[in-house]
Amino acid sequence: MQIDGHTRMAAVVARPIRHSISPFIHNYAFDASGINGVYVAWDIPEEDLEESVQNVRRYDMFGINISMPYKQVVIPFLDELNQAAQLIGAVNTVVNRQGQLIGYNTDGYGFFKALEKDDGFTVKDKIMTILGGGGAATSLIVQAALNGAKKINIFNQTQFLEETEAKAQKYEEATGVTLEVFPVENQDLIQEKILESQLLVNATSVGMDGKSMVLADDTELPAGLRVADVIYQPFETPFLSYARSKGLKASNGLGMLLYQAAKAFELWTDQSMPTDQIWQELEKRYDV
How many domains does the chain have? Predict the structure, then answer.
């Protein structure tokens, strides 16, 4: 990588963010693609967010990625949102189009692109059961609906069911896809909905400790069920380990991380990220 007077910048904006793997992914992509760009991490307080967004225009940057806790609060500073970002109510990518700042959410795209790349799985005309209703779950729910899922079963904590139901109704009206909301505490109901599904997703933080299990120990997983977890540290959660012990194809969240970045890179540069090369480097880094 050679930085000169023509180098354009991109950045990830969050707090904290210095641990992020995004600079590695994007700088590798800039270098491998021969694009004169550099990607850095901006760890900023919320009171500096508006000025940081204005800097995208000021310095003619490619754009920025947005991570927590700024995915919602950044929206008033943008000129436009794409459909997924509008429905989700959160932005993870800002694209500078000749001074117009457009907000996108590429998380759901990245998740489903990773599944398709892995074994050709697509959610179109299939039933998805998802555990969780937070930010990660919402991006997957919206993208699944936009991708033409047949039906989406959403399990969230009882205290958040009313809010989740309101969101589900909005997504159903916008996409025509059937969404149903249930309490995640009801393992019998989870079992019932799993048996009708082709895709089961854990979008909660359960399992991040490497010990906790989001499903009951005796949960039946039907043959052919595709299983995925948004968690990638640890690389194999108890949820994924259980699915694999039943002979099922199961993926963690590392692919989602890569392909959401790849979409952002494409939006900024109009070029494809060399994902195969970067995946090999990620496998080394995470000792896959």
Answer: 2
Residue 288 scores a pLDDT above 70: no
Annotated binding site for NADP(+), which residues? 132-136, 230, 253
What is the span of the domain harbouring residue 59?
8-105+260-276
pLDDT over 60 (residue 272): yes
3-state secondary structure 229-280: ECCCCCCCCHHHHHHHHCCCCEECCHHHHHHHHHHHHHHHHCCCCCHHHHHH
- Please indicate, yes or no, if residue 140 is contained in any of the structural domains: yes
Q: What is the CATH number of the domain that holds 137?
A: 3.40.50.720
Catalytic residue selected from 71, 113, 193, 263: 71
Copy the structure tokens of residue 57.
């225009």
**Residue list, annotated binding site:** 20-22, 67, 92, 107, 132-136, 230, 232, 253, 260
Could you tell me the pTM of the whole model?
0.95
Residues 155 and 227 in one domain: yes
Do residues 93 and 119 lie in contact, with contact meaning Cβ atoms separated by under 8 Å? no
- Does residue 115 lie within any of the structural domains? no
Query: Length of the chain, please?
Result: 288
CATH number at residue 67: 3.40.50.10860
d(CA 288, CA 275): 16
3-state secondary structure of 36: coil
Cβ(119)–Cβ(199) below 8 Å? no
Name residue 65's beta-bridge partners.
12, 93
State yes or no: is 170 an active-site residue. Answer: no
Closest CA to 142 of 76, 202, 197, 83: 83
Percentage above 90 pLDDT, the chain:
96
